[in-house]
Amino acid sequence: MSDHSKTIVIVGGGLSGTCMAIALHRTTPNHQIIVFEKNPEAPGRGIAYHTDFTHQPLNVPAQGMSIFPDQPDHFVQWLLKNRFRYKHLVPEVHAKVFVSRKVFGDYVTEELEKSMHGSGSRIQVRIDQVCKIEKSEERFIIGTESQVQITADIVILGLGNFVPADILSDDLSIYNDPKYISNPWTDKVYSALTGYENILLAGTGLSAVDVILGLCVRGFEGHITMCSRRGRLPLPHDL
């Protein structure tokens, strides 16, 4: 990459897009970085690190969650510095602690804010949805939902996790039934419950465990059945 200034567009402002923006800001001092994210609450957090995810822990201990490869203890040091803010969520700070996703989301968003508002910042976060990318000679033309058009030298897709595929069924009415929820990462999972239903979870992985934790926190007293092709729960970490 040459030293002259380039415009880099990152589509998606969740964890992947945010980490890419921060890394480019550190390593490419001459380039302008524009992050497009359609959800105003998502920059730095994406789907997995919402502010209400206080009960859902990360599946990696703190020692493995630094967003800076050259500073592997950065997140642990951040936790130590901010331990009084999170005393109710992280009673004890050490390298092997599993903190809540909300806390990690705070960490990422703070690092994004530092990069955006620090001296010589070249990062912009725009709340808008990219609808079109076209090639024009050696550059790209980016079109957005709000009719903004930007020319970029480099485009990076940080689209994150897509909604899980639906369970195949010949009965299409299933997909329109409000009691069938294909996306486990939305509040729709909990919003229409009375607390006494019989719930079937298709899958026994980490997302299923997260849903159960969310139900328990809300005082759910119904019956939960989990099923999968292999019937295996996530393995514990060997610490």
Could you please describe the fold and organization of this structure?
With 239 residues, the chain is α/β, with parallel strands linked by helices. The chain has three domains: 1-56 and 100-162, FAD/NAD(P)-binding domain (3-Layer(bba) Sandwich), CATH 3.50.50.60; 60-97, no CATH class; 173-227, no CATH class. The chain contains six helices and nine strands, in the order βαβααβββββααβαβ. The protein has helices spanning 15-27, 74-81, 101-117, 173-176, 188-191, 206-217, and strands at 7-11, 32-37, 123-127, 130-136, 139-144, 149-152, 154-157, 198-202, 223-227. Strands 3-2-1-7 form a four-stranded parallel beta sheet. The protein has a three-stranded antiparallel beta sheet with strand order 4-5-6, with no helix packed on it. β8, α6 and β9 form a beta-alpha-beta unit. The mean pLDDT is 91.
Largest sheet: 4 strands, parallel
**Uncertain ranges:** none
Strands in their spatial order, largest beta sheet = 3-2-1-7
Report Rg.
21 Å
How many individual helices?
A: 6
Report mean pLDDT, rounded to a whole number.
91
CATH topology of the largest domain: FAD/NAD(P)-binding domain
Report the end-to-end length measured between terminal Cα atoms.
41 Å
